[in-house]
UniProtKB/TrEMBL annotation:
Domain D-isomer specific 2-hydroxyacid dehydrogenase NAD-binding: 108-295
Family: Belongs to the D-isomer specific 2-hydroxyacid dehydrogenase family.
Pfam families the UniProt entry points to: 2-Hacid_dh (PF00389), 2-Hacid_dh_C (PF02826)
Keyword annotations of the record: NAD, Oxidoreductase
Top-rank taxon, per record: Bacteria
Species name: Paraflavitalea soli
Keyword flag Heme: no
Protein name listed in UniProt: 2-hydroxyacid dehydrogenase
D-isomer specific 2-hydroxyacid dehydrogenase catalytic domain mapped to chain residues: 4-326
GO molecular function: D-lactate dehydrogenase (NAD+) activity; NAD binding
Coiled-coil region list: none
Amino acid sequence: MKIAFFSTQLYDRTYFNQYNRGHELVFFEAPLNEQTVNLASGFTAICAFVNDTISEPVIRQLAAQGVQLIALRCAGYNNVDLAAARAHQIPVVRVPAYSPFAVAEHAVAMILTLNRKTHKAYNRVREGNFSLQGLTGFDLHGKTVGVIGTGQIGQVFAGIMQGFGCRVLAFDVIANKDMEAKGVEYLPLVKLLPQCDIISLHCPLNEQTKQIISTQTLSMMKDGVMLINTSRGGLIDTQAATDALKTGRLGYLGIDVYEQEEKLFFHNLQDEIIHDDVIMRLMSFPNVLVTAHQGFFTDEALTQIAQTTLQSINDFEQGKALVNRIA
Ligand code: NAI
């Protein structure tokens, strides 16, 4: 089958070529959107990633060009108009799980970095500055951690934090019995927020969760709280977070995802003028850590992403049921 890959980087080519058995893979660096959709002409399937725009006009055009399958090489699908895909009868598959450990461990890495300031210590020591001034952290042991969304990643994250000796509270639309058995307490959001020293977001972006972190919910949090977002940028009202950083309500912010990330993340812009003043302001805070959507970025996850995506494509070609179908 001929498959057009959008938004590709070298590592996508490396992993997909390694596990490909017989398909013709064409890798475009361009993202998929209304301007680039014509690149998919002549392909049977397209493979897209988190920041591709798979809207109704794009899907309509894909259908007109004869594309029969949309394969997402990611878990989240907030960037896909699923109703349009159904209307145009193009099945959509995703990779529902590809190492929840990768993302959960990255969230923990962000917590440890923000808390113990190892990024600053690394730079200081290299410049011969062995002073500890300003590097004070806090013990994680005994702190209260709130997990919003206790699916695959949230569960792993909660377990790691319990391993540090933290008390873990959770908010989800469905309580997970296994987690309750392990001592995690489920609470309504308004009861959870005021108790937490650290809050980590692990729910998908949807109508209910959009800007779940807003001026209102930030006002319910403890002063100096640490907020971590490795899920989707749209979960946080970025302006509200910036305001809360200015007042000190937010003591630390770690984000691996950002509302306007598609214009920035995954690109090397070091020689360019960055026009996004919102992220530039965020990055000017000493207590903010931004990583460019690298939570998933482990060898195990990249292997799983390539294998699962190619398996879905094989199954589609052979007329088998698509176990990872979402539309
Ligand atoms: P999952 O589907 O296993 O878990 C999501 C959980 O969120 C479920 O327990 C669900 O009930 C809960 N949830 C849904 N709506 C909710 C609401 N309104 N309020 C509270 N909880 C709600 O998903 P998984 O695999 O744990 O991934 C979570 C998110 O992580 C994904 O949606 C994706 O956005 C993000 N992600 C980020 C990556 C990165 O590289 N930074 C990589 C992979 C996923």
